[in-house]
Amino acid sequence: MSMRRKIRIKSNTRILVVACILLLIFLILLFILKPSNIENDPNITTKVTTISDILVYDQDAKEVISLPMDEYLVSVVAAEMPASFEVEALKAQAVSARTYTIYKSQHSGCTDCDEKADVCTDSSHCQAYVSVEEMKKNWGEEFGEKYLKIKSAVDSTSGEIIVYAGKPIEVFYHASSGGRTENSGNVFSAQRPYLVSVESEGEETSSNYFSEEIFEFDAFIKILSGERPSFSLEIEDLDSRINDPIRFDTGRVDTVKIGNTVFTGKQIRKAFGLNSTNFEIELKDNQVVFKCIGFGHGVGMSQTGANAMAKSGADYNEILKHYFIGVEILNDY
User: Fold this and answer.
1) What is the domain extent for residue 141?
2) Is the pLDDT of residue 20 over 90?
């Protein structure tokens, strides 16, 4: 073999080795970088990591129990929405509750629980929950019919969750919005792109649409003084020192100045146990009257609005996509 051919073979070998090394480096970089790029690209829908069983902290029994997802959801839907509601509304509730649970489990679980769990049975910081035994007690002879109706709503949507940009959304729902839902940023710490204000028609006939709370003048002042020690107001000045509230575009109260103090609508709602922050304040016969519209924080899905949509012929997909903007319903559980 000539010297020139030996040099050519060695040269070709080097080129081949270098090419293999570069290909290997490229594949390694592709493997490392691809998940990050997908995760950060809102236009790419990715597979959602889900769970089969969930850990539920029972607030009454003070213990953690493991339950299949859909078994847990039957108890949640039964506690969160009347069984008399339309089937499509119950399905929307089931998918919302499943998504809530998935999101919670992927974001540190129930941080207010005494023991580590995905969720708990306390509706003040997770979802409401009612056991089968309690359903039997509450529903009596109607138990069989109502239980099967709710179970069917859960089973027929089994595995379905709500996603935005390929990820489970942070779900919120409430009893009644009073005709329009609220932007999440006006209630909670963050504004989510899928939790924006939308109309919610057909709620006017629901039992929790209108409500009133009445307080004597002295009780009214005492409650506000308990909220803010610096608060000062004399009874004879009430009529002139309750200012018109400053409201969000949705009608709910942002702030209201009473006496020498500015209160948020959320502070007033909590202090006086009001159904919502969409309220008017009236003075009548030595009493302060709060007239409220809606029930709950107003963010996300209105349950009575969902029922009204179902009565008008909307299915659960239409309901969910109306209240949660820009989402998709995926069967990924």
Assistant:
1) 53-201+298-331
2) no
